[in-house]
Amino acid sequence: MKTVAGHGATNGGWTIVVPVKALDRAKSRLARALPAPARRALVLAMATDVLRTCIATPGVARVRVVTSDPDVAALARRLRIEIVPEPVGAADRSGGDPLNAALTEAIRGVPGPVGVVTADLPELRAPQLARVLAAAVGHAHSMVPDHGGAGTTMAFWTGPAGARIPRFGPDSAARHLSEGGAVPLDEVDPSGAAGRDVDTPEDVLALAERAVGEATAAVLRAPSVAQGAHSAGVSATMVR
């Protein structure tokens, strides 16, 4: 595995891995509301805020980003964090989603506890992540379900390397729980920010009434994002 050195010590504390899809492929469900440039800007902004939060969180010794996107890699270099190139054509032993193969490579051989934090949590702040990590350290495997209950926003491992198997993708929450024996941490963060990912125009629209990171807030002020999310959100509500 080739990495570009950056933020964090190599010994002690958590290693946090943040996967970020190529920006042109990310958040396809937002396409009905946002044009491609606006969608790309929002994904990069959310990733920026999540990475900054990980860096600022007490107890985090190292942050890595898994990506094949040059703009995301440039962001990681500016933040001085490690880049793990997303492997092409890698086999996934945990259920078919190539993301899991990339994450497996990113956590391979890492000493100490490791975690995966998704890049679409614009409300997440260091105190909230620190609270989750404090709970996760007491379990061999734990996870945070997303606000819909089916997906996973975070997964953590403190046990043997061979048991560290990411199970992201469809129905990942159930898979982490049933196949991996993960302990759910859905009640650890009272604010809900740790589980509130952004996948739909309705999710984007809801951010207008919540505190988000600086980079995300700047993108949300752009007319193409605000108007697009509002239009799609209103339409979706009307047809229910």
List the helices and strands and how they pair.
Blueprint: E1 14-19, H1 36-56, E2 60-67, H2 70-79, E3 82-85, H3 98-107, E4 114-117, H4 126-136, E5 141-145, E6 152-157, H5 172-178, E7 183-184, H6 201-206, H7 214-220, H8 223-238
Helix pairs in contact: 1-2, 1-7
Would you kindly provide a written description of the structure presented here, covering whatever features stand out?
This protein has 240 residues and is an alpha/beta fold. The protein has helices at residues 36-56, 70-79, 98-107, 126-136, 172-178, 201-206, 214-220, 223-238; strands at residues 14-19, 60-67, 82-85, 114-117, 141-145, 152-157, 183-184. The termini are far apart.
The domain count comes to 1
Q: How would you name the CATH homologous superfamily?
A: Spore Coat Polysaccharide Biosynthesis Protein SpsA, Chain A
- Oligomeric composition of the shown chains: single chain
Instruction: Give the mean pLDDT.
Output: 86
Strand content: 5-15%
Q: What would you say about this model in short?
A:
This protein has 240 residues and is α/β, with parallel strands linked by helices.
